[in-house]
Amino acid sequence: MPRRPLAPETLQLIDAVREALAENVVGVDVQEKTMFGCHVFMVDGKMCLGVENDELLVRLPPASHAQIAEMPGVRPLSSRGLMDGYFLVGPTAYARREQWQHWISEALAFNPLAKATPKRKTGNKVSSKTDGKKPGDGQSPAGQGTGSGRRRTRAAPKPADADAPRKHPIFDSE
């Protein structure tokens, strides 16, 4: 099933995060992926920031999870306590420029201390099971080598007016 197109507000927020990272991170590897149903920014191979609809996803120290979760406009990514340190920050909690900069700088400050997720093995389990089989061995040729089990990330769709610089609407009044 194809993904739904992102709302213009979401695209603007993604651009705002992209711009903030460009201003604050120099000489560091930054990649964009889709994870947890969010558009995330990986800094040095670790999830640091992201966007889900109109919310900012931030990764902060798990030790301060309970304290941060009590802040107005902030909610944990997982309600079951499975992802301590991951928060969705609502528009009311990043509405002013200093609030926005607080969340960006806190996520970037924690990033060097964050634990990186180990890389998955990229071996193709299905093809290793079927490598010795021939089309006449009970499998069709079309069934061989499919279903590698790997997830591929896609780049975010680029809007038609992508060349025009955009700001998030919360900063239009400043």
From TrEMBL:
<feature type="domain" description="TfoX N-terminal">
    <location>
        <begin position="29"/>
        <end position="110"/>
    </location>
</feature>
<protein>
    <submittedName>
        <fullName>Regulator of competence-specific genes</fullName>
    </submittedName>
</protein>
<feature type="compositionally biased region" description="Basic and acidic residues">
    <location>
        <begin position="160"/>
        <end position="174"/>
    </location>
</feature>
<feature type="region of interest" description="Disordered">
    <location>
        <begin position="115"/>
        <end position="174"/>
    </location>
</feature>
<dbReference type="Pfam" id="PF04993">
    <property type="entry name" value="TfoX_N"/>
</dbReference>
<dbReference type="InterPro" id="IPR007076">
    <property type="entry name" value="TfoX_N"/>
</dbReference>
